[in-house]
């Protein structure tokens, strides 16, 4: 079955024509556009279908979007996006027979069903529960432009239900004096401070800025030389040689591990915790960062023993959201 899949985040919108059959998905064509350069999704979808369909009838579509899904028409309110996505408008403008909108981490959770061993990087714990195995809740979270989270929960009849959340917008909970001061500094800039204010691409930049402006660490010239929106990757690249960048990344990894542990406790994710998004594969591929992450993940006091048994897997397949949206389109 050929479907149109979309993965729309706060920075980029990715589209693909995907062939889904027998639990496997193959991307036949793909495109990516910058969200900030578009007035909406209708134009990119129309152009993509015009180039790649070759006059064939438009397929059904499923679009994963970084926002809260409410109904179908004008149904996405995304705090990290400059525009909304409207399923009915896409159907009319692009000649699509049906468009389903789902949260981007609903799509990511669905995409786990299509992953193989080569698509994940283990970071400690036991064996991952199989996606179809009853009795083993799973969780997925990922830091990118924002912080997405979703749960995969077993039902008594053996089926599993995906529950997308806005858990990334829960209050940030510091765990030590440095994080206490970070919270106070962020509160001075934003008022209320969510976990996403720390655990995201912009959050990494905020941690660095706090260390330089409030903790009086020396600034890193390569970071200061680029625009704020471009500083995150430079901070990561300079973490091995510059103190402010090193500490910023350490704090980021600590918060990531602690939040992943919180999510695991929320649903007793004995079937495993998955980390999605572009930051985790880059940062947690480094053994020192992976060890640091695992330490804060397990640092839950009297429940440490439980956390030690829960597997964590970094998803390295960059097409997770597209695969999940395509799979969802075949189920609707």
Secondary structure topology:
Blueprint: E1 2-8, E2 12-21, E3 24-34, H1 42-52, E4 61-65, E5 68-69, E6 76-77, H2 87-94, E7 99-103, H3 104-111, E8 120-122, E9 138-143, E10 147-154, E11 160-165, H4 177-190, H5 201-213, H6 221-224, H7 231-238, H8 243-267, E12 273-276, H9 279-283, H10 287-298, H11 304-309, E13 312-315, H12 320-331
Parallel strand pairs: 1-4, 4-7, 9-12, 12-13
Antiparallel strand pairs: 1-2, 2-3, 5-6, 8-13, 9-10, 10-11
Helix pairs in contact: 1-2, 3-12, 5-7, 5-8, 7-8, 8-10
Structural class: alpha/beta
**CA-CA gap between termini:** 13 Å
Order of helices and strands: EEEHEEEHEHEEEEHHHHHEHHHEH
Number of strands: 13
Shape: globular
The CATH architecture assignment of the largest domain turns out to be 3-Layer(aba) Sandwich
Q: Tally the helices.
A: 12
Average pLDDT, rounded to a whole number, is 92
When the domains are counted, the total is 2
Which radius of gyration do the C-alpha atoms yield? 20 Å
Major sheet: order of its strands?
8-13-12-9-10-11
DSSP strand (E) fraction?
A: 15-25%
Outline the biggest β-sheet: 6 strands, mixed
Low-confidence regions: none
Fold-level CATH name of the largest domain: Hexokinase, domain 1
Helical amount among residues, as a percent range? Answer: 25-40%
Q: Look at the structure and give the CATH class of the largest domain.
A: Alpha Beta
Descriptive notes:
There is one protein chain. The chain has helices at residues 42-52, 87-94, 104-111, 177-190, 201-213, 221-224, 231-238, 243-267, 279-283, 287-298, 304-309, 320-331; strands spanning 2-8, 12-21, 24-34, 61-65, 68-69, 76-77, 99-103, 120-122, 138-143, 147-154, 160-165, 273-276, 312-315. It is of the alpha/beta class. It has two domains: 2-111 and 319-331, ATPase, nucleotide binding domain (Nucleotidyltransferase, domain 5); 118-316, Hexokinase, domain 1, CATH 3.40.367.20. It has a six-stranded mixed β-sheet, sandwiched between helices. The chain has a five-stranded mixed β-sheet with strand order 3-2-1-4-7, with helices on both faces. It has a two-stranded antiparallel sheet with strand order 5-6. A hairpin with a 6-residue loop joins β5 (68-69) and β6. α1 packs parallel to α2 (87-94). The protein starts with a strand and ends with a helix. The mean pLDDT is 92.
